[in-house]
Amino acid sequence: MSNQHLNYSEMAKDQPPDLGYKCTKCKDKGYTLSKDESGYEYSEECECALLEKANHLLKQSGLEKMVHDSNFSTFRYDYVWQGQMFSKAQEYLFDNKKGNWFFIGGKVGAGKTHLCTAICYEFIKGCMRTIYMPYREAFSVLKRMLSANARDEFDHYLQSLKTTEVLYIDDLFKCEKGKLPTSWEIEMIYEIIDSRYRNSELKTIISSELNINQVLEIDEAIGSRIYERSKFYNIILSEQTCSNIRLNPLKVQK
Ligand SMILES: Nc1ncnc2c1ncn2[C@@H]1O[C@H](COP(=O)(O)OP(=O)(O)OP(=O)(O)O)[C@@H](O)[C@H]1O
Ligand SMILES: [Mg+2]
Ligand SMILES: [Zn+2]
């Protein structure tokens, strides 16, 4: 019998009695059965299966250790600019239009990574495949792969950055003090950004100490793509208005 002819009610009959299940709703089958108005039986993934999937995606994302501290419920808005950041991020999450990216640039320690991590966590809860790409660490990994001649691993990693449903690039173009990104780094970032730019199904979240004009100065092709995609969700935290929460923690813990 082919799969498409499987009768879900028949399958359910073979299950053990309703004792000791982790999920009583689906009796640990991972799906529930319902009937539509015409009596047609269909199956739906159970909440427990979705939760399991989200947990798996969280582990794979590289954000597992961060989401405990950096999520929306731990994000405080004691200052007007923090409230504005929070609202913009919420607006972004609830905007279902395709092709919108999120960019936040500026002041060190003002909560850019916290906010972007919180956004990603919500996408992961919605079972979206997400990758955290901390700029400098990711480039160290890519360089190490190349110098170890691990070309397959390198290609696989690069491909996953280009195609994952959600990519969070943290600290874009962060370099050692006084240095600029190398032309190879710019080339790699261009490849990633351009692939994602051409597929409006993919979401890209970017934080940087630079503002969009400074990104444009480094590379216009990269900057203008980011600018266009994050036109509606682009936050700049100015040096004058915003503060470094790391140096000012008492203001956050009321
Ligand atoms: N609004 C906030 N509510 C609670 N904690 C916050 C808030 N903003 C920042 N923090 C905390 O302050 C610290 C610094 O924030 P974060 O790392 O997000 O800053 P950043 O802007 O990414 O800094 P950098 O430019 O150095 O990368 C973190 O521990 C973060 O959780
Ligand atoms: Mg940061
Ligand atoms: Zn279930």
Search tags:
binds magnesium ion, 2 domains, binds adenosine-5'-triphosphate, 44% helix, globular, 5-stranded parallel beta sheet, two-stranded antiparallel sheet, alpha/beta, Rossmann fold, single chain, 14% strand, 254 residues, 7 strands
Structure description:
The chain is α/β, with parallel strands linked by helices. It folds into two domains: 43 residues, no CATH class; 203 residues, P-loop containing nucleotide triphosphate hydrolases (Rossmann fold), CATH 3.40.50. 44% of the residues lie in helices and 14% in strands. The protein contains ten helices and seven strands. It has a five-stranded parallel β-sheet, with helices on both faces. Strand 5, helix 7 and strand 6 form a beta-alpha-beta unit. The radius of gyration is 22 Å and the shape is globular. The protein binds adenosine-5'-triphosphate (ATP), magnesium ion and zinc ion (ZN). The site of zinc ion has 5 residues, from loops.
